[in-house]
Amino acid sequence: MAMSGGVDSSVAAALLVEQGHDVVGVTMKTFCYSETPDHSKTCCGLDGISDAKRVTAALGIPHYVFDVEEAFDRDVIDDFVTQYAEGRTPNPCVRCNGYTKFRDLLSRGRSLGCDLIASGHYVQIEHTHSQSRILRGQDKQKDQSYFLWALPDEMLKSLLFPIGSLTKEQVREHAHTQGLVNANKPESQEICFVPTGNYRDLLRERLGKVHPALQPGYLVRRSGEIVGEHNGYAGFTIGQRKGLGGGSSEPMFVLSINPDTKEVIVGTRAELFDDIVIISGLNWLGGPIEDGATALVQLRYRAPAVPALVSREEDQVILKLQEAQPAVTPGQSAVLFDQENRCLIGGGTIASAHSSD
Amino acid sequence: MKAVYLDHAATTPIRNEVREAMEPYLSESFGNPSSLHRWGREASAALENARATVAETLSVSPQEIYFTRGGTESDNLAVLGCCRFMKAHKKQLTLVVSAIEHSAVLDPAKLVREWQGVELVTLPVSQDGVLDQELLKLALESGPTVVSLLWVNNETGLVFPIAEISGLVNELGGTMHTDAVQAVGKIPVHVKETSIHLLTASGHKIYGPKGTGILFVRSGVDLVPLIHGGGQEQALRPGTEDVAGAVGFACSLQLAIEEQQQSCKKLTELRSVLERRLLELIPGLSINLQDAERASHISSIAIDDVDREDLLAALDLEGIAASGGSACESGSTQTSHVITALYGEEHSAATVRFSLGIETTEQDIEQTILKFTSIVTRLRKLGVAS
């Protein structure tokens, strides 16, 4: 059972114990907390580890902390920094789930003689004789299937998500009934390795102040007209409105980022919509769907899933959205669901997007 | 299945005699030793009796015993307190430690190194456990020198020839501190027959209470206190004394030293069974510093092709408590500085430390051998499979 010290994984562990499983709690120590003086943030920090220890002790199950700092640094933090340097907006949680967390959990679990790996994600898993499928969480507000598309398909059969059928409210209630020490712990929102919430500090530290991504550049319209200046394109994400200055007759949004020229391209809300999305690194869960079939695609964590035609071209996948969507952001995940919007069928990273008009 | 605790170098339970000795001072005799009334006198008498017991046990004078709140504090007080005093009187100072000291000495030493006019000399230790005494001599001849060396290394059990070294240090005008936390009750510790100036001991490693310890300070050796705020412990360690703790410490020390020979004999036998059997049963396994002089309670095992964290967790799931090295460094998985200092950066074998105690039985050892062997076999099979 992966334990962050948060209320979700704690309740998940409690449920597994109630169900009679032999549970071993595991916390992955992902980065060096001693270098971040502010560990008042909720998850994965040292207080996360000590909360996990308190909860597991109360549940009467063993708990181990495994250090994955090196791999996490290489596979998640470095990637995060590189993506920003290249003008994209990364999804570090997707990366962590796909490359670090679950793989490590599985191999540690095997070493400890465990049959199944559990985590406190708000998703459901359906195991049938022939196949295992990840379904959206019961709590639509909390559903985290978006973050799990990069899991290796063959891993699904070993997974359990004990709180996927509960709402956050029910989870909190359960935590209170059980008297778990972290029942009232606030939600963690920030990226775990950027506890201050300011990822630019991390970029400065890793890339150096003189990196082009952190150097001043121009804000330009698609026409090429310069409308202002910015102090580093890494501070921008597609669809962003803040930090573009005023002065124009209608609100301006970031449309795209050109790292070669250090330009941040801005435009009106109407210009923000794209209907063709190119995806790379596609991972199918339960096998690829037919070329030209329709699926529902979710283009960011909080966005609704929208219908799209899925076609393959060499190692990329092209999505033709039925309706153009705003702020399709390179680096974010495009996550595919079945037509009932229930079952996770795959996903990839948005490479680029444009409008077919 | 009985759980087997083989992590006595991390900590030990309070033994009954110690608990009983402490109990009156937790409740009815709760006075503050500094108070003049009856309660105070009672507490003060208990504290001074405890001090006398400790002094007698170590064959030193009661005025030379300072109660502290544990081994780490005593080490800090010895290293920082001594260096600070010397620096107030001398321009230059050399601090000598070994590469395999406990972090309670290494970390203060790093602080001292930052002071102006201080040189820190770290003595290497060979793969056979031999300390470079030539380098020590050179340092001592260079001017005022403070030396801090473990008597028994906490990760491997290695014994440094502290009696001999303290003679050399004293002869050449240096000040000698030894951390004897893993030595008392394990090997003969005759402070009187050595030239040690400062000695650290801790209660919870010898079936006494946690948060208790002493620093022995030979008469004539001056230290600057680390904390300030009262006259207790001759103002070297101010703060209201932990009377029950001091009583418990004294009792545990007395028993540990009384029983040292007998327990050493027993632990040596048990450990040799453990080590011999594991060497026979598991290929790719060796005993760190096997041929060096080692305290009888620690066995440091190097094992190839197994992840240390997996191994320790799997042992725990089977009810066997061991550790990866120093309990004080757990939470981090870097190879311990002790193992790296002995065998180099490339040393990739996992290290597991078993440490035995007076309640360890033959059955415990048998069970450990059995479980350890089957876990290693299973993990290696998994490793090959992936």
Architecture blueprint of SSEs:
The complex is a heterodimer of chains A (about 350) and B (about 375).
Chain A: H1 7-18, E1 25-29, H2 46-59, E2 63-67, H3 69-85, H4 92-111, E3 117-118, E4 123-127, E5 132-136, E6 159-160, H5 168-178, H6 199-207, E7 217-220, E8 226-230, E9 253-258, E10 263-267, E11 273-284, E12 294-298, E13 306-313, E14 316-326, E15 333-337, E16 344-354
Parallel strand pairs in A: 1-2, 3-6, 7-10
Antiparallel strand pairs in A: 4-5, 7-8, 9-10, 11-14, 11-16, 12-13, 12-15, 13-14, 15-16
Helix pairs in contact in A: 1-2, 1-5, 3-4, 3-6
Chain B: E1 4-5, H1 16-22, H2 38-58, E2 65-68, H3 71-89, E3 93-98, H4 103-113, E4 118-123, H5 133-141, E5 145-150, H6 162-171, E6 175-179, E7 198-202, E8 213-217, H7 243-258, H8 260-281, E9 285-287, E10 298-303, H9 308-317, E11 320-321, H10 337-343, E12 350-355, H11 362-385
Parallel strand pairs in B: 1-11, 3-4, 3-5, 5-6, 6-7
Antiparallel strand pairs in B: 2-8, 7-8, 9-10, 10-12
The helical percent of chain B reads: 40-55%
CATH topology of the largest domain in chain B: Aspartate Aminotransferase, domain 2
Strand order of the largest sheet of chain B: 2-8-7-6-5-3-4
CATH architectural arrangement of the largest domain in chain A: 3-Layer(aba) Sandwich
Q: Which structural class matches the secondary elements of chain A?
A: alpha+beta
By DSSP, the count of extended strands of chain A is 16
Domain count of chain B: 2
Strand content of chain A: 25-35%
What separation lies between the terminal Cα atoms of chain A? 49 Å
* Helical/strand content category of chain B: alpha/beta
Rg calc of chain A:
21 Å
Give the overall average pLDDT of chain A: 91
Order of helices and strands of chain B: EHHEHEHEHEHEEEHHEEHEHEH
Q: Hey, roughly how much beta strand do the residues of chain B contain?
A: 5-15%
Remind me, CATH topology of the largest domain in chain A? Rossmann fold
